[in-house]
Amino acid sequence: MKIGVLGASGYSGGELLRLLNAHPVFTVDYIAAGASAGQLVTDLHPQLQSYSSLRFESTDIARMNQCDLIFSALPHGESAKLMSQIDPGIRIVDLGADFRLRSASSWEKYYGGVHAGSWVYGLPEIPGQREIISKALRVANPGCYATSIALAAAPALVAGVIESHDLVVVAASGTTGAGRKASANLMASEIIGSLSSYKFGGVHQHTPEIEETLSAISGDEVKISFTPILAPMSRGILTTLTSRLVHQVDTQSMQALYREHYKNEEFVTVLAETTLPRTSSVIGSNSTHIQVAVDSHTNRLVVSAAIDNLGKGAASQAIQNANIMYGIAESSGLISTGLGA
User: Fold this and answer.
1) Which residue positions in the chain have pLDDT lower than 70?
2) What is the set of domains in the chain, with CATH numbers?
């Protein structure tokens, strides 16, 4: 099965290539990176020695139309320019934001420009979504923050135990979440030994995506106050979500609720009561680690979730979606065990 990867020079594109190299069904046939066309793949991804003889190709519609499946890891706004030119029978998973939002007004507010429309939302662990993905030809891969926050909130919202208009989230991400483009604030000398908030005051672009996803789950309007933090690490996301409980419950009952909700999910683990999520535990994997507690002093639910922003937050989740689209084993080419310390 011929696979194309667009935007392969970036961090998510490189992670796609790494994972696809071990996939039992998908074979990489087309590796595109417009600005880096002609360069060796290993010039930008020296870890990918299995691709050492290959060069990035230009972004070419004719080459795309020779593929069976395309992963697009282009910056937001770029995928939408190309998709209408690709044969409608070719399956596509877009890792960018272009087709995630249903609301045109939200797109204009948070991203700017013309809304390109919406595709099937590719978060398989959301109730009912796996079957929809299995029938789709075009899937919008979720954002990294959106993935961790939705998985942290979903069980409580489905059960109706928290107030849907009162979700407060603080989440820290590694620097690869900002992409590969050079930026002064991402230089090692700027970030080592330092934490800083960014897109402060509820303006992060994943906010409407999270609210749309969680509102569909809960059947009620969800409002989220979201503060992202840049952490001095290359990859990983640690999310802390809190919300007011609608009645008094204890930690043990909420842990039981979360374990029941995710009991059949290979890539979501509700940890043992004394274990807290660590980003190092999920790096390189498609896994989400979750811990749940009740703050009885304020009667709030507290949920901690860790993912790899390049894995479950991007490349490995894209492959998980493609596996579902083709009806092959969902875990094909993926691992659930992280690298650890």
Assistant:
1) 178-187, 189, 341
2) 2-141 (3.40.50.720), 145-307 (3.30.360.10)
